[in-house]
Amino acid sequence: MLNFRFSNFLSESGTDEAGRGCLAGPVTAAAVILPENFSLPLLNDSKQLSEKTREILRPIIEEQAISFSYTHLEPIIIDKINILNASIQAMQQSIMKLNPTPEYIIVDGNRFKPLNDIPYTCIIKGDSKFMSIAAASVLAKTYRDDYMNKIHEEFPMYNWKKNKGYPTKEHREAIAKYGTTKYHRMSFRLLPEQLKLDF
């Protein structure tokens, strides 16, 4: 059973990101403030939910949330500032888009950076403990999946529609065969040693 709130503040935002371990595509974060009487029994950490369930939950979350937002940060930024900093920046940007600005932030994971003096707490596996983080995880995942489905049309040989940019065997083989695209994260180890690219 997910908890509703961590702090004593009325306006508490949960935030989470998706796509951190991917070889291609953005890291996508979302932030959500839920109303007091919010109830959604199906809601859980997005990784525990089927794609179909996430698609059902997203419009319900968006309709009932006091405020929600999401942010994509592109590979060029990830390569420049590293994936941890990019994940934090995407979460911060999402929080800054919320209206009202939250009085407290709960973050999935163990790393965050202070944002405009708003108090915050990092919660390991927060997406399976608190509703607002679980809701943010569903939004981040579904908006990122939409993005990957769209860029799949541009480069179908990588099958991003299926692997969403994660380092599957098929994705790595496509990189070895076709090289990289503007959507690949060049700072990541795109191929294991035995599959070196010959450029």
From TrEMBL:
InterPro entries: RNase_HII (IPR022898), RNase_HII/HIII (IPR001352), RNase_HII/HIII_dom (IPR024567), RNaseH-like_sf (IPR012337), RNaseH_sf (IPR036397). Endonuclease that specifically degrades the RNA of RNA-DNA hybrids. GO terms for molecular function: RNA-DNA hybrid ribonuclease activity. A divalent metal cation binds at D16, E17, D108. Belongs to the RNase HII family. This is Ribonuclease HII. Its EC number is 3.1.26.4. It comes from the Bacteria. The keyword Metal-binding applies. Manganese or magnesium. Binds 1 divalent metal ion per monomer in the absence of substrate. May bind a second metal ion after substrate binding. It holds the Pfam family RNase_HII. The gene is rnhB. It is found in: Cytoplasm. The keyword Hydrolase applies. Residues 10-199 form the RNase H type-2 domain. SUPFAM superfamilies: Ribonuclease H-like. It catalyses: Endonucleolytic cleavage to 5'-phosphomonoester. It comes from Flavobacterium azooxidireducens. Keywords: Cytoplasm, Endonuclease, Hydrolase, Manganese, Metal-binding, Nuclease. HAMAP family: RNase_HII_B. Its cofactor is Mn(2+); Mg(2+).
